[in-house]
Description:
The structure holds two protein chains of two kinds.
Chain A: H1 3-8, H2 17-37, E1 40-41, E2 49-50, H3 54-61, H4 63-94, H5 99-108, H6 110-113, H7 116-126, H8 142-171, H9 174-182, H10 187-198, H11 200-215, H12 219-224, H13 236-246, H14 250-275
Helix pairs in contact in A: 2-14, 3-14, 4-8, 4-11, 8-11, 11-14, 13-14
Chain B: H1 2-28, E1 45-52, H2 57-68, H3 71-76, E2 78-85, H4 90-98, E3 106-109, H5 113-120, H6 128-132, H7 135-140, H8 143-148, E4 158-159, E5 164-171, H9 172-177, H10 186-198, E6 202-205, H11 212-226, H12 229-235, H13 245-259, H14 276-282, E7 286-292, H15 295-302, H16 304-309, E8 311-314, E9 329-332, E10 336-339, H17 346-354, H18 359-367, H19 387-398, E11 403-405, H20 407-410, H21 413-428, H22 433-441
Parallel strand pairs in B: 1-2, 1-3, 6-7, 9-11
Antiparallel strand pairs in B: 3-10, 4-10, 5-7, 5-8, 5-9
Amino acid sequence: MTASSTRAGRPHAAWALPGVLFFSVFAVAPMVLAFYLSFTEWNGLGDPRPVGLANWQRLLDDPRLTQSLWLTALLTVTSWAFQTVVSLLLGVWAAGRQRNRAVLSAIFFVPFLLSSTAIALLFFALLDPNFGIIQQDTLGSSSGAFLAIVFVGGWQFIPFHTLLYQGGARQIPEVLHQAAAIDGAGRYRRFFSITLPQLRNTMATSGVLMVVGSLTYFETVLILTQGGPGTDTAILPYLMYEAGFKSYDFGYASAVASFLVATATGLSLLLVRMTGFGAMRSTREGM
Amino acid sequence: MGSTTSSEGGRTFSRRWVLGAGATTLLTTGVTACGSGGGSGSGGDTLTALVYGDDAVKVQEKAVARFNGSAAAKSAKGTVKLQKVPGTEYPAKLRTAMGSPNAPDVLFNWGGGSIKAYREADQLVDLTDTIKGDPVLKDGFLPSVLAAGGLDGRNYGIPMRGMQPVILFYNKSVFTEHKLQPPTTWDQLLDINAKLKKAGITPFALGGSDIWPELMWLEYLVDRIGGPEVFERIKNGDASGWGDPAVLKAAQYVRDLIDDGAFGKGFSSVSYVNGGAPAVFAQGKAAMHLMGSWEYSTQLGKFPEFAKNNLGWAAFPEIEGGSGDVRNVVGNPTNYWSVNARTRNKDAAIAFLKDCASEAYAKDLVANGDIPTTSNAAGLLDAAPNPEFARFQYEMVEQAPAFTLSWDQAVDPSVQTPMLTEINKLFVGQSTPSRFVSALQGLR
């Protein structure tokens, strides 16, 4: 440790330089450029032509934006409900100490380690109406395609959230359960009166991650449905991809991208505030 | 708190950064997709040729080797280096490369709408006069194929791969079993459908989740009902051309087929690319398959027994009262080489393109299972893996009064995606034929 850093009582600011540099070059600069491009018309050839607010005007008039916002909201809520219920139950169960649970937990975790692309390709094959496990036109119907996306997303991310809940549940002091048991509380009573309230912060953490994750959901939609049938699963990130890399309309795609940045940032700030996620309050008050 | 929000924030942005950065880095650095472009300087220029990197690229590799050692290369003082780009990434890579300082000198494309933006940006050499003034190029290729790669009657490309007409394939054993003949008229087709359905067989395999196999139906129907002029108008940027009665009628025919169960129930969840539709067809669950000529090699790879013994082929049937010639063909006439207007050695580039008209080049294509679009190809077809199928294809294209380029390749990329979406809506029943027409008329 150098003299200067000890004097300040904390690491020197220069240590942050590489991080800040990478962050600026690979994150901030492209974002600023995308924002700039949203005020231009550009097909990838020649120079971008400034068009003022035209792309933004078009974005706000685009019926597909309304549809995709609604879809994104629906996807977020449905995924959150599905993933939270399943991973909470699995996590609390897996928090037990028996040997087989540890092994099973490890197996549960496997889907999270696979790439989204591989998972989407796998489920696409499984959903084939002629050779798959469900021989119906699942991806050809609006509700079927939507539920397939929710399910595949859940299948991939539930293991991760299960792990969070398992960790959270293991942190709950055993004495609480013991005291309640002496008072005559049964299994269900203890779950609703002790486990659930004690997992408040875990739920907030996992909830924020789920919401933010659904906003940026992309590969599964690209491979499973390509936004279809029709435009029934065309969520915001897919809309952006289509405008940019299929229609070569980079100005409009940048407007969608900037809109997505603003929405996601706003939403996660709101969530942080509402859930007290950042407050780091102790769950053990009064203990 | 600080650390918690920033790590969570990082998660928030990562996806957008990757995609957003993709778009913006084009502007800043012009991603060097094509590596070292320009010439090395020593004893002539090294030209870069950007090509779609699939199995057929072997033919172009041989052409490059042949050209680089030839007298033509010496007199033009240039050699060619091939830059292969894998599969579906090709159009996006080409767009990136052409916007950068390291643009390729010669570029692979699909003609039509796929080169429109480049033409408008003055990035392509107009080859019309070169072709007219050069006997090798002028008489070297089938006229319908040469014309299909151009825009507004001007040529910007030289044919360089096999032809890919869309063909009505059928399962011979299913047809024999039910005593059927491949349809030559629409009424016959409907009659066959009814018989097949009674027997519990889906009449047509369709990879609807890819959408472009659905497009093939509309392409042929519009051509048979209204003739090739209908799409020709649309291709040249006249969106009101979608209002032609032939488009509405074709859409109604499609709707009737679907309501009639011609494609089975789950066609929207079936893909061509992952092998779903070819498997349904090869296993006799579906009796016919409207598909590009590559269906033959697909089946040969996946179900060789079926491809050799039971795969039959026919032209798309005639429609009574329609004004389109029954000999007309849709599909991909072929692929083309175009020359970048900024190339440092135009003479060498054109000298290289002339190799595509040579007999050696055509022979390489035939050996690879492709049907060349050169006028002398007929004599080489006996060497093809399946001469009978090769000759059928060649004659089909040679005798075609018109060869309409696949719509998704012919229109502007900005129209392509919404067009495919509308077609998908029509097939899944989210749209009606009349709403389909008015939605397409609204595309710009």
